[in-house]
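Why should sequence recovery work at all? Because a backbone constrains its sequence more than one might expect. Tight turns favour small or flexible residues, buried strands favour hydrophobic ones, and helices have their own preferences. The token representation captures these environments compactly. In the example below, the structure is given first.
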């Protein structure tokens, strides 16, 4: 199956949140990466038919997703960025409730709910009320509810927000296993969340996709612009003001190694290094992030 956005535009008054966006997605894990305000949530809400575009369209195998309606939503799973939970529901009750809304029959709902609770590491807490859950536990429950109908298209808006490192690893493994023969789209403003699971990165800025490709393909766009250089630790602070620094590593000899994004060598003796996604992100988002 092929999901395509064609000249997709969404305006809120004079603000253009998604600007003539074009993208074609087939099976695989896609990382939607961009600073806050880039338009990720709006794009995802359009993909989920929660919002209508101002102009342009989204088609699944050539058919408008708005015309497909229920038939489209049957194959869709969605975790919104701000998800409303029912604090007095238990984890299991909540999944059964969402399953009922999605039209699953009772027996299937029970089976799938307990399998999913197991997969997101909540089987021990299935009968605990959601109000007792940590942020990461709620987020894992949110991911589980998005997967209840075994969706062909899974859209997760900032799914790793609030997850601790162990939960992130579990999430990565879950998505990798789930994504075979499906389309999975994850948004984040944290590069390391998707660097290892996304087969393709869509980098979004000001409502447009400015890069689309495999991680190493898109990072090659800034090859020659990432440097490492060693400076006295006492002066490292002063460099952070004038340079775009993606990493800073203190060494034991009183020196600090700076990783710098710059078109020219930032200091004498700087060595060119291979760019990674984090570098690319900083290259494009320096102003917005500060
Ligand atoms: N309902 C809305 N009304 C007005 N402006 C909005 C609305 N939703 C989003 N925006 C604006 O659209 C832009 C994109 O927002 P959003 O899609 O939430 O970006 P992201 O998820 O990448 O942070 C932002 O400038 C935001 O302020
Ligand atoms: Mg968002």
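From this structural description, the recovered sequence reads:
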């Amino acid at each position: 199956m092929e999901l395509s956005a064609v000249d997709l535009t969404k305006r809120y008054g004079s603000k253009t949140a998604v600007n003539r966006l074009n993208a074609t997605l087939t099976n695989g894990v896609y990382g939607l990466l961009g600073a806050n305000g880039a338009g990720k949530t709006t794009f995802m809400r359009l993909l989920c038919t929660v919002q209508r575009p101002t102009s342009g369209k989204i088609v699944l195998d050539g058919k408008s997703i708005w015309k497909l309606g229920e038939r489209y939503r049957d194959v869709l799973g969605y975790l919104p960025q701000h998800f409303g939970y029912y604090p007095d529901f238990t984890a299991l009750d909540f999944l059964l409730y969402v399953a009922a809304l999605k039209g699953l029959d009772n027996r299937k709902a029970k089976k799938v709910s307990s399998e999913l609770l197991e997969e997101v590491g909540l089987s021990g807490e299935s009968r605990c009320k959601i109000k007792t859950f940590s942020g990461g536990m709620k987020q894992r429950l949110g991911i589980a509810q998005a997967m209840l109908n075994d969706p062909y298209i899974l859209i997760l808006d900032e799914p790793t927000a609030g997850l601790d490192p162990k939960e992130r690893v579990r999430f990565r493994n879950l998505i990798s296993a789930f994504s075979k023969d499906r389309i999975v789209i994850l948004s984040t403003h944290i590069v390391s969340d998707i660097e290892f699971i996304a087969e393709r990165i869509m980098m979004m800025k000001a409502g447009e996709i400015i890069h689309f490709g495999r991680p190493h393909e898109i990072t090659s766009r800034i090859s020659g612009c990432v440097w490492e250089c060693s400076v006295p630790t006492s002066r490292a602070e002063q460099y952070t003001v004038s340079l775009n620094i993606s990493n800073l590593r203190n060494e034991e000899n009183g020196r600090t190694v700076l990783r710098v994004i710059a078109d020219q060598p930032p200091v004498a003796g700087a060595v060119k290094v291979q760019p990674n996604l984090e570098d690319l992100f900083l290259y494009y988002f320096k102003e917005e992030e500060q």
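A few observations help interpret the result. The chain has a mean pLDDT of 93.
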